[in-house]
Backbone:
């Protein structure tokens, strides 16, 4: 069954507790583009935007148009790394700088 990309994206954002601006920062897709997808103004977004959003959620671009968002097979470690990446992507610039500084100090 086909599902409108706006509904699938809305569900993914809700399930991951993401705002439009957080998703924009994490993917590089402009927030107004995300808003137009969610409000169904844009029903066929550019492929590069779809790919970036899908990569962020760990799904295939095509699954943004389907129910359930078929996730690719991933190991628990890959899922943990992706979760860490998502959390880092939601930090602001100064929080990220502080985090990376602390990590680099711990690796010395």
Residues:
């Amino acid at each position: 069954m086909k599902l409108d990309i706006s509904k699938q994206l809305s569900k993914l954002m809700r399930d991951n507790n993401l705002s439009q601006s957080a998703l924009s920062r994490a993917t590089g897709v402009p927030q107004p583009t995300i808003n137009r997808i969610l409000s169904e103004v844009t029903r066929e977004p550019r492929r590069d935007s779809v790919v970036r959003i899908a990569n962020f959620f760990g799904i295939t671009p095509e699954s943004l148009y389907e129910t359930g968002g078929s996730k690719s097979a991933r190991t628990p470690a890959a899922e943990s790394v992706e979760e860490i990446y998502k959390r880092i992507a939601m930090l602001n610039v100064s929080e990220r700088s502080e985090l990376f500084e602390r990590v680099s100090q711990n690796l010395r």
